[in-house]
Amino acid sequence: MDYDIIVVGAGHAGCEAAVAAAQLGSKTLLITMNLVLVAQMSCNPAMGGIAKGQIVREIDALGGCSGIVTDNTMIQFRMLNRSKGPAMWSPRAQSDKTAFSLYWKHILERQENLDLRQDHVVRLAIENHVVTAVYTLQGKKISAKKIILTNGTFLNGTIHIGEIHFSGGRIGEEASFGISDQLEKEGLIMQKLKTGTPVRIDGRTVDLLKMEEQKGDEHPSKFSFTDTPSLTHPLSCWITYTNEKVHDILRTGFEFSPMFQGRIEGVGPRYCPSIEDKIVRFSERDRHQLFLEPEGRNTNEHYLNGFSSSLPEEIQIEALHLIPGLEKAKIIRPGYAIEYDYFDPTQLHFSLESKLIENLYLAGQINGTTGYEEAACQGLMTGINAHRAIHDQEPLVLSRSEAYIGVLIDDLVTKGVQDPYRMFTSRAEYRILLRQDNADQRLTPIGRDIGLIPENRYSDFTQKYDRQQAIIDYLQNHLADPEEVNPYLEEQNTPILTQKVKYGNILLRPQLNLTDLRHYATDIDPYLQEINAMPEEVENAEILITYSHYIEKEQEMAKKMDQLDHIKIPKDIDYFSFSSLSMEAREKLTRVAPLNLGQASRISGVNPSDIVVLMIYLKT
């Protein structure tokens, strides 16, 4: 019963951590309370979304599995923000909830070096601030060189429905006790957060004719850069709205609300509030948009996105029946809130290993994040870094200019969290560098170097970018004939050509795109006809040509900022000895203990003048 790595919890973080560690060669154990419920979609049955879709593609580019699982189980795909620039494009997929979990289990069961165990970890073996083993409810002590905790919302979890409250990690599943108290005694700062989920509705009792149909993309894309199946027979989602009568009914339940009555101490997600929170915070709005989303192909269960609530069940039902299309809806399960423990992530290294307990790694909601995607990428990084630590290799730390994963981990470790952390494109300084289309270009060479990307996949990757570069070279060096392209230019209300011009220059006009342009040119330009078979390479090439100026500008800015990250700060520095630093800066620098000047500059409360003081000290 000795392992290299033990992963506790089989949610999205735990599954990614376990597979990565085992694939790299570590003898790994994944232990969870219920092996039937691995990688559960506890909330909405979807992967991706604004910035989250970029994270899923980054996970795949490094060699993780979330994108592959999503592609094999999706029931709808949409590329969000297509009307904006490519830096904002974000893939999102509705998944078959049950199939998603089963596909993940299939991956876990066939992974070499990985054992699975259904049990409940109740305590860790910690001696002199070093963790060496786990103790289980079934009386086992299992030793490991590294232990990764991915407990999600299960640590001291409490479920709230109106005035009713009971312990649980998810409704119908017991909470986990013991670990939180033990880690707090070891010095880890423990706090509480809260999240919630909406009612689940029987689709047979819904009147879809009163709702707006929301179809997926006509030509759906994918998450994985591998040869996963394309989506066929997509399902629709449906849009409806609340109204003033709904809001009035919800208000009658406020006196029973655990949130408004103070029974919930944890802070809820700022960007995904409950319906009762919405009608208070946005009281000027007379309606809120709701999305009715199917949970799978072989179930009638639907998820009402936007109607998260912890009000009494009878209030939820009464309000629900005043929403168009849901007048006769029967609920399968009421909405509820869950309050749970998390640990201050500023007490972690960038590898996500604890600063206070050696060999202990934390990933997912236990670090204060919310969302499957945020959890999965942390799990992947802990699996990689735990394995690398065993073999005395430097941890893999992605920078803010390399990946949204790097932004997320830097935010957690440097700034901490005040409410459940959710990734947005606005959190990244280099959005045009961190597009969803180039995740493989940024990260697949790294995945190959660390051992998660096999040679055959890497060969496919290099061939793809050779083809893409050939398209760019052609467009930048070949001239378009005015007779050939002027009909297209006239149609788009942009000035016609009076002489031959390079295709790349034409594409700089905002009204034009390469997809339409090449249809006008194929009669006399066989190469443009040939690249019709390479839609992904064509789109990426167009992005690089059209936004080349902005990309170069961001690359220069990233290079300048990275210089601060190379100015190391001694570990034993006494910030309180600097009288010229603000007291807030001294306190926060001491607590975070930044590794370099770049990290110090990103700490909330540390201003530019404080950085100048540190820079002068480090130079002298």
How is this structure best described in words?
The strands form four sheets. Strands 10, 11, 12, 13, 14, 15, 16, 17 and 18 form a nine-stranded antiparallel sheet that branches. Strands 1, 2, 6, 7, 8, 9 and 19 form a seven-stranded mixed sheet that branches. β15 (289-294) and β16 form a beta hairpin. α2 (52-62) packs parallel to α9 (372-390) and α6 runs antiparallel to α8 (313-320). The protein is of the alpha+beta class and 620 residues long. It is built from 21 helices and 21 strands. The mean pLDDT is 92. It folds into three domains: 2-441, FAD/NAD(P)-binding domain (3-Layer(bba) Sandwich), CATH 3.50.50; 455-550, tRNA uridine 5-carboxymethylaminomethyl modification enzyme MnmG/GidA (Arc Repressor Mutant, subunit A, Orthogonal Bundle), CATH 1.10.10; 566-619, GidA associated domain, C-terminal subdomain (DNA polymerase, domain 1, Orthogonal Bundle).
Short description:
With 620 residues, this protein is an alpha+beta fold. The chain contains 21 helices and 21 strands.
Features:
seven-stranded mixed beta sheet; alpha+beta; FAD/NAD(P)-binding domain; Arc Repressor Mutant, subunit A; single chain
